[in-house]
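Researcher: I'm preparing a figure for a lab meeting and need a structural model of a single chain. I don't have an experimental structure, so a prediction will have to do for now. The sequence is pasted below. Please return the structure as tokens so I can convert it later.
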Amino acid sequence: MRLSKKGWNNVLIFGVLLILFIFNFSQQSNLFYNKHQKTVISSNFTILEIETPDYTLTRIGRNWQREPNIGVSSKRQQDIVNNWQKTPLDSLTDPKLPTSDFVFKFFVAEQDQPIIVQLHQLQNNHYILQVDDQLFLSLPAEKISLFLGI
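Model: Understood. Here is the structure written out token by token.
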């Protein structure tokens, strides 16, 4: 196949446009992914206590104490607290969920009132964390043990 000078110019122009489109699209997808991920509790807060329906984690000095105590190591308890503040989750638009019975209360040093987080389980074994009726985060089933310590 033989192309004229004009034909080669068109091939070159479309090739450059394609490369620009690929670079722009890959950069946009990275921005979209990073932009819509958030942690449940901001790392700017100092968590003093986490109250759940099953147990309470209380900060005592630099360590954590669980009541009732079931023999979970101090390191594991610290990892659970860190996951609430450091594990990014995908944020969702307002999915209109009913009130959940599984509620976490996070008492932080910087606020008088606790941060309320509701855990909702969907039919497809997927979870949604609802933070203070404003933020909705998608929690895949494989990550739930990071937050609950189970």
